[in-house]
Protein: NAD-dependent epimerase/dehydratase domain-containing protein
Amino acid sequence: VLVTGGSGFIGSNLVELLLDLGYKVRVLDNLSTGYFHNIAHLVDHPRFEFQLGDILDLPAVEKAVDGVEYVYHLAAMSKVAPSMKDPKMAKYCLETNSLGTINVLNASRNTGGAVKKVVYAASSTYYGNGKTPMREDAAPDLLTPYSSSKYEGEIQMDIYDRIFGLPTVSIRFMMVFGPRQPTSGAYAIVTGVFVKKLQDDQPLPIEGDGSHFRDFVHVRDIGETLILA
Structure:
């Protein structure tokens, strides 16, 4: 099994779950947003392998897919705000999330059928400010370069499945929480912030009037869903 982005919050939890189930797991990650300390405790595991590399580097991706049967594609440029403020970051976001995904698909397709399925971590930003309750078949409401680049990944997954016969599945994550979630900074959701506040014996702040709501899903549930996909 290959997990791209396997040193990140969700990826590292998926890797642990796969190892617990008896799989051999290889991680491909450039460590640009993930952290090696998330998987450092696994380096001596007999069924774990780490490969430092970028999904924009096709030879690195081809090396990573060699000998694997399933690919979990979680690697992404996931910084929404920078993609809106900086044209260079918007370009990098498109390259990583779209062209990088095409590299993963091409490398998987070129294994001659050895890769049985590619499972893609899509994004709930697909829905934008659409009507609630949200439906899987709702039209996209893409508000940022990040959301459009992640949706482009979904489109490529569908193309490679229908046109080239490479089985793919795309799963749109909502607000994921659990072990190794960010607890500070722009990308820390309320669960991570509250955990840190509780650890520091501080009050839990309520933003706005307290009437806002979000859909949350535990990272282990995400991992199990990815495996069942």
